[in-house]
Amino acid sequence: VLRALGLIRGNAPRRQRMVAWLEHFDACLQAAGWPGIAPGHPLAERARRNWNALCERLYRLDAVTPAGSRGAALARLRTALGETPQRRPTPTANVFIVGLGEAAVLDPTHLWLLGCEGEALHGATRPSPLLALDAQRAAGVPGADPARDLWRARVLVETLAGRGTAHHASFAAGDGEQRLTPSPLLPALASAAIAPPALYVPRAWRQIPAVQDSIADGAGPVVSPADELTGGVGALAAQSACPFRAFARYRLDARVVEEPRPGLSARVKGTAVHRGLAALWRAFGDSATLHAQSAAAIDQAIEQAVRQALASVPAATALEHEVAVVERARLASLIGQWIEFEQTRDGFTVIACEQDYTTTWGGLAFKVRPDRIDRLADGAVVVIDYKTGRCAPADWEVPRMNEPQLPFYALTAPQAPVDAIAYAQVVAGQPRWLQRPADACAAEEWAGNCTAWRDDLERLAAGLAAGAAAPQPKRGAATCRVCEQALFCRLVERAGDDDDEADTAYSSEAQDAGAGGRQHGGD
């Protein structure tokens, strides 16, 4: 700025008329960045109008005034400025809410700066991405030169600090969970004591706080012989996942009311798959009969099984009718793919298909219903559970098995001694058979599995019978994420959610909640 002013002054003649001197003064003001407010701002426009009006007054005298020196022109300019009335707010009880730039040209008696947060008092400006940065810095574009912006901000704050007799500054200590700090342009705020907010409480609300007692209640009443424990093996699965889940769901009957939605739920679709396959195998009976059927006969049997499986699906409205049509086609295709997969297996005979029986385990009575029991060509017996969602043999790992149904069926099946268990994963495009042990004749491996499963099931049944209700999720947040009792025990809310564990851990409860499987076998 000083170099520009020196150049303008050096090019000016020693004596010239007032009009030329006013143009000279205008050039000096422009070089100095006057009025120091963003172009287009109301204060900048008003300052420019006042300057033009002053120049017009001096233009009228130029015709009768001889040429003079720069000092004489400045003297005449000072005289004219002194004669110009300055309209300023009178120092009364008026309150003006203005921006920082507007406050700098006022003369208040009191000053209160609001919003003195670090990112709000003088927000960071950004240069235009469409122009060269060097050109913007040379032109003094705000935001192009951080040092110049800091200088302007400090000048503005110091100007405000010099106005008035009383100064107040305030900033927000936080915004939700975000903590805010005062602007470094006001270092005194950082060390100022922040008084706690004084909340108004009506006299009628002012009461002595009640004294609350807290007790550890991790167990409920034991299951008596008169108690009817519903849920079947599903109660053991819930006990394995979390004792509180099992107690709340099967002892307190605390369940979430399902929200009605258009279309068929995943539970209804999974149930239809089980019913359709059960109807088919009641008709075929064994693999030899299946192989003897023609393709047309198999398609006809599948169509009839699908019709029976979806007999209870409503189709009263136009939407329900269209949904039923789509579901029949989907279910026929899914069952057809699974039957093609079954034809690749070795010979077998279906000796039981969704047959109920009642058994006692750990002093508790269970009513169960295995999906299917096969006898293989070598005489081995396999208990099968249909799955329409994710599943893995890891569900049978002890302690605290994720899915204890199949091991429970294997240890209690009345039809015949069981030699293996298997998941029949009925998934479109990827049907799979997951069996343990892989060879049904591996007697030693099977005996070891049965011993481990028996011990684990006894522990689960003992905890269920004793009324264990402590919130102890097996997989932490991953188990709580898909639990309908999460709002009841609030364990994750109090302890914090571990996103990494929840994202990487596989929870079989998610399948039952919405991946297409149904709660069967008494669940």
Largest sheet: 5 strands, mixed
Mean pLDDT, as a whole number?
82
What percentage of residues falls in helices of 4 or more residues? Answer: 40-55%
Q: Tally the helices: what do you get?
A: 21
Question: Strand share of the residues?
Answer: 5-15%
As laid out across the biggest beta sheet, the strand order is: 7-10-11-12-13
Instruction: Give the overall shape, derived from the CA principal axes.
Output: elongated
Number of E-type strands: 13
Task: Decide which structural class fits the backbone.
Answer: alpha+beta
Poorly predicted ranges (pLDDT <50, ≥5 residues)? 497-523
**Radius of gyration over C-alpha positions, nearest whole angstrom:** 42 Å
- Give the distance, in angstroms, between the N- and C-terminal Cα atoms: 84 Å
Describe the model.
The protein has 523 residues and is of the alpha+beta class. The protein is built from 21 helices and 13 strands. The strands form 5 sheets. It has a 5-stranded mixed beta sheet with strand order 7-10-11-12-13. Strand 10 and strand 11 form a beta hairpin. Helix 11 packs across helix 14 and helix 13 crosses helix 14. The longest helix is centred in the middle third of the chain and has 25 residues. The two termini are 84 Å apart. The C terminus is likely disordered.
